[in-house]
Amino acid sequence: MAAPANTITSLTNVGIREDLQDVIYRVAPEKTPFLSNIGKSNAKQVYHEWQTEDLAAPSGDNARLEGSDAGTLGAGNTPARVGNYAQIFQKSGVVSGTQEATDLSGRASEVARQKLLKGLELRRDMEVAMVRNGASRQQASTDARLVGGASAWMSSNTSNGQGGSNGGFNTGTGIVDAATPGTNRNFAEDQVKSVMLACFNSGGSPTMSVMGGALKQKFSAFSGIADIRVPVAKGSQANIIGAAEVYVSDFGNLTLVPHPYALANECLLIDPEHWAVATLRPIFSQDLSVTGDNQKFEIIGEATLVSRNQKSSGAIRAIQ
After folding, report:
1. Is 9 part of any domain?
2. pLDDT digits (tens, 9 = 90+) for 276-294
3. Alpha carbons 110 and 124: distance in angstroms, whole number
4. How many Cβ atoms from other residues are within 10 Å of residue 144's Cβ?
5. What's the pTM value of the predicted model, to 2 decimals?
6. For residue 269, what are the domain limits?
7. How many domains does the chain have?
8. Which residue, 11, 22, 34, 103, has most beta carbons within 10 Å?
């Protein structure tokens, strides 16, 4: 039935306030699983260096005649000197003076909100740069410095697709070369077992496996997954577990970590103790010079990735 004549309704009345919630909802992946799990250290130069070493292969024929002289002295164990470039990560923004002065919903200051969001974006950029198969680079002309990523560092314990090849630290150039992944193939448990065995033989002990979300789903179906059935109390409803958190290998357990925005075609087997992010300049915000009726700012951080010994970890590339 229609309303009586002259009824004042919200359809025609004026002066009604907006019903706008004082909250801004954001749904975007913000986690940095690689950076959050590895170590932290400091850098003092744009090219950060460290040393690695190895032991000679063990021999069961190490035997000496009774009473004999030492004879030829063994060669010394000389460490290898490796390094990585620090990359400058930067985000910027600008907000008009009018926008900052207005009564806003969900935030007290648009400048502060933009700084927060840009800081989150910068952290994600750092995560991608340090976990990916990306070569390092010295600054030259208009080319900025680049950090060599974890996947690029790994050259000892790997599984590549057909036609693929490893990268790794280049002692001649002092840079980290990117790997050539090769032709994509299906992700299989044998690949994980093969790389875990190579890590074990090299002295490594990966405890974390990082991969894209689709690969994580495939990993969850491998036979080595820990028990996915849980006891249910009498009269209770059963729980269906469709995900795996731990893979039980012959050489230890792997915690499975899905990466929300990197490693779409790679699975990295990581020993977090042998990786670190070395910070030259911690992330900070600075206001830029005023050139008009606005506020400009930038967020900056400068850091590099330290591969304390790439033999500790492994990479499975070109998988889908």
Report:
1. no
2. 999 999 999 999 999 999 9
3. 21
4. 13
5. 0.84
6. 33-50+81-316
7. 1
8. 34
